[in-house]
Amino acid sequence: MTSETIRVLLVSADSSDQSIFESKLRSSAHRAVELTRLDTVAAACERLTEESWDVVLLDLALTLEQGLDGFIRLNAQVPETPVVVIASPATQSLAALALDAGAADSLIRPSLRSEPVGDILVAIIQRTRFNEAIRKRELMDRQTGLYSLEGFRRMIGKQLSLAIHGGKALLMTRLTTAGEPSLKQIEGVAHILKLSFRESDRVAHLGGGSFAAIGIIQPVPESREIVLTRLREQLFAYNSTSGEAPLELKFGMEVVAATPALDAEGMIEALPVADQAL
């Protein structure tokens, strides 16, 4: 962890926390730190649908009246990202419950200035990345670096839960190649999809020339057009530089209401038919 920026999302109403964590992380990691502070869980959940972070810090004082609800919402939203809770003497019992529910660690507020907080967080990030790399080997398609069908099935249920909780919709996309693709064409489609969708979206290689993606969006027509424009731009860029016959793709894309009536299998069945030329 020496060449890239550590991205930290701090969810706290105490503005002094930002300078404490920035200082601790910089002195420990010997690298750039990008720390963003938001003062509500709702704002953090919104931001987490748009960007990826290395670690999320949650001050339990924000969720004292709601118990673990705030932690559970954040943790469900970013299952691949460690969530560390910040506790005070008044919230230590809540911190213990958060640890049982999956928190990566807890920090005690009176000790923030004296403890090696930066070292602790860097170690948590490293451990999480190592564990995530092992987990992804089981869920990912090795050829493309996208989710396999089984990985896709296991991950999209969380997308549904988050969309329902946030009052959002799901953008369901299926893409297929024209004819039986070569290995290079399959890798080309994967490259296009990685550049067209967000890290928070779930993108999969379903087998052969079939691909799919599910993302959480605002239920407005513009959301569909934004993604479709990116796909077309990336396809054009790929074909302009590949040096081979142009890659032809067909797509189907629909905005689907997120309802409890759906489940993982239902979401896969709801993927639209790819019958339009990209």
Task: Give an account of the 3D structure.
The protein has 278 residues and is α/β, with parallel strands linked by helices. The chain has two domains: 6-139, Response regulator (Rossmann fold, 3-Layer(aba) Sandwich); 149-277, Alpha-Beta Plaits (2-Layer Sandwich), CATH 3.30.70. 44% of the residues lie in helices and 22% in strands. The strands form two sheets. The protein has a five-stranded parallel beta sheet, sandwiched between helices. A five-stranded antiparallel beta sheet has the order 7-8-6-9-10, sandwiched between helices. α1 packs across α5, α2 (41-48) packs parallel to α3 and α7 packs across α8 (221-241). It is elongated and about 65 Å long. The two termini are 39 Å apart. The mean pLDDT is 85.
Any chance you could write out the topology, listing elements then pairs?
Elements: E1 6-11, H1 16-29, E2 33-38, H2 41-48, E3 55-59, H3 69-77, E4 83-87, H4 92-100, E5 105-108, H5 117-139, H6 149-166, E6 169-177, H7 183-196, E7 202-207, E8 210-217, H8 221-241, E9 249-257, H9 264-269, E10 276-277
Helix pairs in contact: 1-5, 2-3, 7-8
